[in-house]
Amino acid sequence: MDARDTAERNGDREGMRAAPTQEDIRRQNLGALLRRVHILGPVSRAQLTAGMGLNRSTIGALTTDLTEAGLVLEEQPRDPGGGRGRPSLVVRARSQRVYVLAFGVGVDRLVAARVGLGGAILDRREIQRPGGPFGVDETLERLAEFAAALSEAAAPEARCVGAAAAVPAMVARDGGELRYGPNIGWRAEPFGARLSAAAGREVVIGNDGDLGALGEHTRGAAVGYDDAVYIHGDVGIGGGIIAGGRPLTGADGCAAEIGHMVVNPDGRPCPCGSYGCWETEIGEAALLRGPGRGGTLGRDAVHAAVDAASRGDKDAEETLRTVGDWLGIGVANLVNLLNPRIVVFGGTLRIVYPATAAQVRSRINRTALATHREHLRLRTAVLGDDAPLHGAAELAFTGLFDNPLEFTSS
Ligand SMILES: [Zn+2]
Asked: What CATH code is carried by the domain that includes residue 175?
């Protein structure tokens, strides 16, 4: 889809452009068919024929090519049904044979996974560090170890076709340089190049909020929604926006830094240097700054704070109410600005949102435009803490879908 749109734009600019060759069309169709099987799971030839608008013999030729390349296999349907004639063969991704490596860098957690074609996490390695952020060198070392262990554990015939990492930082548009991560203190770090060198293969990097949005849009709560906002709670607040079915990137690739919307100019200082950013009002620190919380951060502490409020601890209730209020104010602003059909709460907000849903709704009802909230849905992330990891896997598979056969024959 991207390639076609780029071609259209280039065509506009240049006035004319060579028509795509038969080979270009075949490559696009192979990528589209493979991506469809990857997203939808096992799918019959008949469904592919109907869904892709191609004729039966073309679908047959494409699936044969993909089968010979070792990317899919075809099998008889488990339930052939009672219809007349031969049942349509089912096309299935070869998940164990074709995989990507996906990395997730959290402020206090590192994770790496082998994700098979079809989107299933086949194997994973993870380390928590409640003591605080990881340094760059330590992060690279750990992720390289994880990558080696995951590759070693894969079947001998398995093939890695890409790798990508989600980071809690702004990432330059070309996906290589990490510009700035306020909560991990990294700045102007050529993280993509360094991780590629450490892992021994190219690793593309992306912002964790953007990749969380991609993950939920592909396989989670936002499937089927062309206009969605994903809000990721960690120590800070990240976000990703899908507009018209596509990720909103911004001029530098750094759009959707929703945690740094200023909602309270007289508020607390933010690690970014400003005051009263949304994350200072709804991030973990806001929830855990109440009396008796001891200053510990992390998922367990967020759970404990929400539990205390549900048990009737007055201070915890008061703090949670304030956080819920600010959560609703920020969401209402995003709703007015972007008119999404769905807002998805991920990371630690999966714990906070259900406990404050009434307040969030009430704020939205008071503040958001009636037209914008009429069909608005508010949901927690289906993929849980792994939303950015799944998004990283989707990013890593992009090259395969651009040119499936060349990718596997090289
Ligand atoms: Zn800020």
From this structure: 3.30.420.40
